[in-house]
Inverse folding.
């Protein structure tokens, strides 16, 4: 078997509603829309977390984020760090002869070189290690050499060019490229002429900038796909496109980011569908039929075992995974039986009673957010902003105790039937007390398991 190349593209805070094909062409994404038409679209595909770092850790390891040590986004405290004993997708593919590269956002460990992407299975790295970066005045790590933005080159275009360079240099051997764009994550910055197209359509400044950021990313993906064709390797290259979590819908610097997201409830940061159900498009001409949509449930943790199977690589016997191989779904052979799925995220030490969810078939139990557990201290906010620009000023992560919190009694859990109510508008908990009790117990047991040392 000629091993397939693998390109895993991850957008940052992009929802289903940000695709032109899903929003009646409001946003301009012709190349992503073409992948939808030609490839496989999973309509019930879930991130492992409603925020960046934990989601990415699960995607890289096939394990729930709590197991990996990546429990929050605060890199100044090291809460984003992927534990050093975790094995990544890049580790496994690299050990079988794949050239491995990461272009873009890492967000699974900063400051300490042991957490650098090149120490976590990637041969090459062009990107940044934290949660966000400016698009014009960026700070970029190019395999250890630091490159600063010149206020002219746009970071999304820089990442697209670096991705093309990687595939050109490795076109004669199997390669794994993780292309982790930071678009459309704040700061909201985009070429003015492109953003102006959307303001003329009546969108506010914030949404216009977001759609422009996505349009630039889409154009870069188009250039990458075109280069694969020119190199003659497009047919045997697996291209996967997804987003790390749902769209950010709040304000940024006074600009609203609220936009249409297929009427899903919630968004980035919460465990409603809008926060965790994310797009998944996949194309592999040599290996999978295209033009397909599947409503089989899939999860970030599934991609490591699935890609190993598609590349004909044996999973290490002692590697304990939470994900399952979904290659049969991708081949159109039926959905099979899918395990229960779980989510939980809050600030600092995980709190199982806050912002948690589980899905069991069509049923979804949700424990709402507790405001006190979702707050970040001013000190941590300031440190996390400072580390983006001047990481060299930090010798170590902040090791002071986390801020003290008074956690009130949690609100009651909610219950939804997603087959009848995918927008999560009708709480059925009162009518189904026995189901709620059973799912609450399962969620509690899962939380204890993934947080066990």
């Amino acid at each position: 078997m000629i091993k397939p190349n693998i390109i895993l593209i991850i957008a940052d805070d992009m929802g289903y509603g940000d695709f032109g094909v899903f929003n009646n062409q409001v946003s301009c994404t012709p190349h992503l829309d073409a992948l939808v038409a030609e490839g496989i679209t999973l309509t019930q595909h879930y991130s492992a977390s409603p925020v960046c770092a934990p989601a990415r850790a699960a995607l890289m390891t096939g394990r729930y984020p709590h197991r990996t040590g990546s429990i929050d986004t605060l890199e100044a405290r090291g809460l984003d760090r992927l534990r050093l004993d975790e094995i990544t997708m890049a580790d496994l593919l690299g050990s079988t002869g794949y050239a491995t590269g990461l272009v873009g956002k890492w967000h699974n460990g900063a400051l300490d070189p042991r957490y650098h992407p090149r120490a976590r299975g990637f041969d090459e790295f062009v990107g940044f290690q934290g949660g966000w970066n400016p698009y014009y005045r960026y700070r970029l790590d190019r395999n250890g050499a630091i490159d600063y933005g010149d206020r002219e080159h746009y970071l999304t275009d820089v990442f697209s060019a670096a991705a093309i360079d990687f595939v050109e240099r490795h076109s004669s051997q199997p390669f794994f490229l993780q292309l982790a764009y930071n678009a459309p994550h704040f700061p909201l910055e985009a070429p003015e002429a492109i953003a102006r197209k959307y303001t003329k359509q009546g969108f506010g400044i914030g949404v216009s900038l977001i759609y422009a950021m996505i349009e630039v990313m889409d154009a870069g993906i188009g250039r990458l796909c075109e280069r694969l064709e020119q190199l003659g390797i497009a047919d045997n290259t697996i291209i996967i496109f997804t987003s790390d979590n749902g769209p950010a819908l709040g304000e940024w610097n006074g600009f609203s980011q609220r936009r249409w997201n297929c009427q899903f409830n919630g968004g980035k940061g919460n465990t409603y569908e809008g926060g965790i159900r994310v797009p998944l498009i996949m194309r592999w001409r040599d290996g999978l039929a295209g033009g397909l949509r599947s409503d089989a449930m899939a999860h970030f943790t599934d991609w490591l075992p699935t890609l190993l199977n598609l590349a004909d690589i044996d999973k290490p016997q002692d590697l304990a995974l939470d994900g399952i191989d979904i290659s049969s779904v991708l081949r159109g052979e039926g959905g099979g039986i899918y395990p229960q799925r779980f989510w939980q995220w809050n600030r600092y030490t995980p709190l199982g009673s806050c912002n948690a969810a589980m899905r069991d078939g069509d049923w979804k139990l949700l424990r709402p957010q507790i405001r006190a557990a979702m707050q970040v201290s001013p000190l941590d906010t300031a440190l996390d902003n400072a580390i983006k620009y001047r990481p060299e000023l930090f010798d170590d992560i902040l090791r002071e105790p986390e801020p003290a919190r008074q956690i009130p009694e949690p609100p009651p859990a909610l219950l939804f039937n997603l087959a009848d109510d995918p927008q999560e508008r009708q709480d059925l908990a009162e009518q189904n007390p026995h189901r709620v009790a059973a799912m609450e117990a399962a969620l509690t047991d899962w939380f204890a398991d993934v947080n066990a040392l």
Q: What stands out?
A: The mean pLDDT is 95. The first strand starts at residue 5 and ends at 11. The chain is about 30% helix and 20% strand.
